[in-house]
Automatic annotation (TrEMBL):
Taxonomy of the source species: Eukaryota, Metazoa, Ecdysozoa, Arthropoda, Hexapoda
Protein's name in the database: Pentatricopeptide repeat-containing protein
Keyword field: Repeat
Keyword Phosphoprotein among record annotations: no
Repeat in keyword set: yes
Length: 527
């Protein structure tokens, strides 16, 4: 309609001096939109990630698009790393696809995060599918993996119960000239997930390190201790060779000496037979003093896990030899080590005292957690006085009991006076008992049918305006029902005992019903 006059949308006409002055003034008053730098984008993403808002972090890509800015590889690295920690395989690979579409160079960090996404994923099938894809891609594209990649791959496969593939990955790393202490640590982590066979694999790893003259560090020792604590030997037996073509790793049987599967060669001795007999794991028909070696091999092979259950260190030279081995490797136990070893000791005061003395004389690091565990061990064995003795050790080492200390002490408070004493001690120090302490005390009082103890705890809750937990209320309800059953089933108790239970129960029942009403009122007032 307008012909060629419509060709230019705007016609630039030179401004006069007044117009130029006006434009300059406007630009000074109303500045143009501030342009984002890449540093601004990095900070924005990181701030969202600190606040655990991954979707807002992801939305920064949309902001960049609006601003006509192109995301670089570091932007993608930040995002993929965050989603990998959540095990979000789908989102990680979606971002990876964008990297490829933009022809950005994929860094080793990106590949490692993709592997880690598979490790952290709860979807095993999806994780294994993507791991297979990645391994195939690495092979076809001749991508050189480093120590961290192999360690993460081992972690990923082991977390999805693919231990054999984890060891294949380690062999692949070795073939490529990469067999570091980190990979050994990753394999230790892997075998700990296999509770049935983990300890057998741990021995294989240990002896492999010795063959390679690779000195274990504190991480290896701590992981070995975890394997000893959590896993079993599987089908391991005497005469098995732990490392193929290595005669010095064949498990041997000897009549004398101390058993030690960490030695070269690994040794089992006749002393184990005596221990098995002591705990009645088998009844020997052999009345001769001389033990039939061939039969012994079979007996020991079948009972290695039973020996482990009774004494975790017995098959590894004992606690003293284990500690000396650490010393010879120039490895000093850390806090984790001292606590792990304590948890593996035989359940005797003597073993605990020996170890505590050794720890102190060698200046090992210990903390209140160490002593809390010692208290718990003794309380579970019903050695409450010995458990309370640990409080003196805590004081001697200038530590302060914490709420967990009182929580584990509560386990041993099976008598009313012990429970009262504990609550008084907490009050003196300035601690209010948490729900764990109170639940434990109520559990003990109800378990031992101690009416006086139960009533005292009920009164304590009312007096201190404590809202009882569901567990406490359930324990009292069950105690009420159980006591009625006992009264109804008179055959198990004599006349005097039943009358005493009836009298105590009537008193309890009256006070219990009143107590429940007061508790309900307190709950209403607190709302």
């Amino acid at each position: 309609m307008f012909g060629y006059l419509s060709y230019n949308k705007y016609e630039r006409i030179k401004m006069d001096k007044m117009e130029e002055k006006e434009e300059k003034f406007t630009e000074n008053i109303i500045p143009k939109r501030t342009k984002f730098t890449y540093e601004n984008y990095y900070k924005l993403i990181k701030s969202h990630l600190i606040n655990k808002n991954l979707q807002l972090a992801l939305s920064v890509l949309d902001l960049m698009k609006e601003n006509n800015d192109k995301p670089n590889i570091y932007i993608y690295r930040l995002l993929i790393s965050a989603f990998a920690k959540q095990g979000d395989i789908k989102q990680c690979f979606k971002l990876y696809k964008q990297i490829k579409e933009r022809n950005l160079i994929v860094t080793p960090h990106i590949y490692n995060n993709l592997i880690n996404a598979c490790a952290e994923s709860n979807d095993r099938e999806e994780a294994l599918k993507h791991l297979t894809f990645l391994r195939k891609y690495f092979y076809e594209k001749k991508i050189n993996l480093n120590n961290i990649h192999y360690s993460t791959l081992i972690k990923a496969y082991s977390w999805h119960d693919q231990i054999s593939i984890a060891f294949e990955i380690a062999d692949e790393a070795k073939d490529n000239g990469i067999y570091s202490k980190d990979i050994i640590s990753a394999l230790f982590h892997a075998i700990i997930t296999d509770t049935k066979n983990g300890l057998k694999y741990a021995l294989c790893l240990w002896h492999k390190m010795k063959i390679l003259k690779m000195k274990p560090n504190i991480f290896h020792y701590n992981l070995l201790l975890r394997a000893i604590k959590k896993t079993n030997f599987g089908d391991l037996k005497i005469n098995d060779v732990l490392i193929p073509n290595s005669k010095n790793t064949q498990i041997q049987f000897m009549n004398t000496g101390r058993s030690d599967l960490l030695d070269s060669p690994p040794i089992l001795t006749t002393s184990l037979i005596l221990m098995l007999k002591k705990y009645n794991y088998f009844i020997s028909n052999n009345e001769k003093s001389e033990i039939d070696i061939s039969n012994t091999n079979e007996l020991l092979s079948k009972n290695l896990n039973n020996i482990l259950k009774e004494n975790r260190f017995l098959l590894f030279g004992g606690i003293d030899k284990f500690l000396k081995r650490m010393k010879s490797d120039d490895v000093k136990p850390d806090l984790k080590t001292t606590t792990l070893i304590l948890d593996l000791l035989p359940s005797t005061i003597e073993a605990e005292q020996y170890y505590l003395k050794y720890v102190i004389s060698n200046n090992f690091k210990i903390d209140i957690t160490f002593f809390n565990m010692l208290i718990k061990r003794r309380c579970l064995r019903k050695q409450y006085n010995a458990a309370k003795d640990v409080l003196n050790e805590i004081q001697n080492h200038h530590f302060t009991p914490n709420i967990i200390t009182f929580g584990v002490l509560a386990i041993g408070c099976i008598r009313c006076r012990d429970g009262i004493e504990l609550l008084e001690q907490m009050d003196t120090i300035g601690y209010a008992p948490n729900f764990i302490v109170l639940e434990t005390l109520f559990f003990n009082a109800c378990r031992y049918k101690n009416f006086v103890y139960i009533l005292h705890l009920m009164e304590y809750i009312l007096h201190n305006n404590v809202i009882p937990t569901k567990n406490i209320l359930n324990n009292l309800e069950k105690f009420d029902e159980l006591t009625l059953e006992i009264i109804g089933n008179k055959g198990e108790y004599n006349y005097a005992k039943i009358n005493k239970i009836k009298k105590d129960y009537n008193d309890f029942k009256i006070r219990y019903e009143n107590w429940k009403e007061k508790i309900q009122n307190n709950i209403k007032l607190s709302k």
